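Feature request, filed as a ticket because there's no other form

It would be nice if the structure record came with a short human-readable summary line next to the tokens. Right now we just get the raw output. Example of a typical job, pasted below so the devs can see what we mean:
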Amino acid sequence: MNKRALISVALVAAPLLAGSSVAARPGQSGLAAVRAATAIYHDVAQAEAAGHELGYTGPALDHCIAHPEDGAMGYHYFDRDSIHDLELDPLRPEGLVYEPGPNGQLRLVAVEWIVRESAWEAEYGEDAPPPQVLGEEMHVLNPVLGWYILHAWVWKPNPSGMFNDWNPRVDCG
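Raw output as currently delivered:
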């Protein structure tokens, strides 16, 4: 199967899989399955034991990420094993996003799927459509970093939308 055909199959299958509760119990939505799969990571020590590192992609992301007008994201812990591949598993996001609490504790608020833009284009071509997760199209927020990303605020409501990059209810303090 050529790359274009493979992309077409993936683009058709992704929304269908998202709607069919990927690896979820009967009646569980895709997002509920993501919550169930990531619940263990409320404990940062569990995330670290599973291979997630604070700011693994570089020093640009080793602090609480905030936007002056749109809110914040929080601290990003990245899975050092999965962040460099092209696989997008809805139940194994490459990033976990934590909000700092008043006493320095970290609270899991979101998950993030990540694919390096250059790797995607090398595999599928520069004209290939962006990758998708749960039927949502990923995007490049920061061209300097060059990552396709998609946040899902599965652990903290976001008035800007479930898949928005910034959450006005997150505070970096």
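Something like this underneath would help us a lot:
Residues 3-19 form the longest helix (17 residues).
The CA atoms of residues 108 and 159 lie 17 Å apart.
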